[in-house]
Amino acid sequence: MASTNETSTLRKFPFQRDWPLSQPPEMAEVRKIEPISKVQLWDGSTAWLATRYADIKQLLNDRALSSDTLRPGFPQSSETAASFRKGQRVFARMDPPQHDVHRLMLTADFMIRRVRGYRPYLDAMIDEVFDGMEKSGGPVDLVQTLALPVPSRVITKLLDLPPEDSDFFLDRVQKAMSLDSTPEESQQAGADTLAYFARVIEERWDSDADDLISRLVRGRVRTGELTPEELQHMLHLILVGGFDTTANMIALGTLLFLENPDQIKKLRENPDLVPAAVEELLRYLSVAHHVAYRQAAEDTSIGGFDIRAGEGVIAPIMAANHDPEAFPDPEKFDITRDARGHLAFGYGVHQCLGQPLARVELQAVFAKIFDRFPNLRLVEKVENLEFHNSIIYGVESVLVDW
Predict the structure, then answer these.
(1) CA 247/CA 215 separation, integer angstroms
(2) pTM value?
(3) Per-residue pLDDT for 60 more than 90?
(4) Which of 47, 88, 247, 254 has the least C-beta neighbours within 10 A?
(5) Which conformational region is residue 179 in: left (phi greater than 0), alpha (psi within -120 to 50 degrees), or beta?
(6) Mean pLDDT of 270-283
């Protein structure tokens, strides 16, 4: 840990926003003045902060940096984040080779070819949601009506779980991920979800069904490759990764479009822009704000700075995705931009396994929403909305009318 004199002169991280849909202005300021620097965290510890795209990409691919949150002194953004992540014993919190072994058990289920098979189901489900919106006559809360149901139904279908359990998952995930939760509340929410999956694993122990959980129980747990507890944590990761992030992207993405009606016009005039629009949404919003924390397992370096074993490193994807060297005029939302190089899903061995599924869901939503509701509008101003203080950034409620 740095000395008292040193930490008193360091910037406090995470930085604060001055507008809900923009990156913290301090991030751009630091990138200009001192793109690689030390910052002070909530507990008085320090960590290296990178703010340039090239440096962040290099760090995320550096095998000298560990993702194991059980390591003493591992950096975190808050006490609650530390508590939540220490409870996660999944490949996202492991280093190779153990990481690679566990991740490979799921790779086939999230390949592009396989997840594209969900598109007809998604299209039908989204049409059903929009039909309900039209019948209601508005206004409706887009978060409750669209953003949450879409990914929750996909995840429950993927895991063959009762759709009516979605409310339980949503409550537990939000409580676990919220930085306004106490560490104890976050831990309990995670424990509740793990207990749920323990019951499901027991119920499917002798199942010969083809759902993901049954196949993992049959092919990995009963063979001894995974323990039941490891599978519980793996399923929890799928739930969190597939539920919370996509829901927030749908709500914030719609909000961002409504704040940029010229981009809605472009999308309606050229529906072929949907894939590019989704990549730009991912780049611009970069909702995984409290990820890409690492600790040096051995000495390494970045940009001429020596990072010693045991030191913390932060490689925020938002900073990378708003670096003007990588994306000119990065604060402009432009769906004609080639944003495919963004790091919204991370980079290296820990890049998001579920990114093909997230893309399919987002493309399905934004291919339809502004055609079905060409006059969609916000009921309240953006500055009056309530946004999550959470590991994954999002908005509590978005009232819309048409």
Answers:
(1) 27
(2) 0.92
(3) yes
(4) 88
(5) alpha
(6) 98
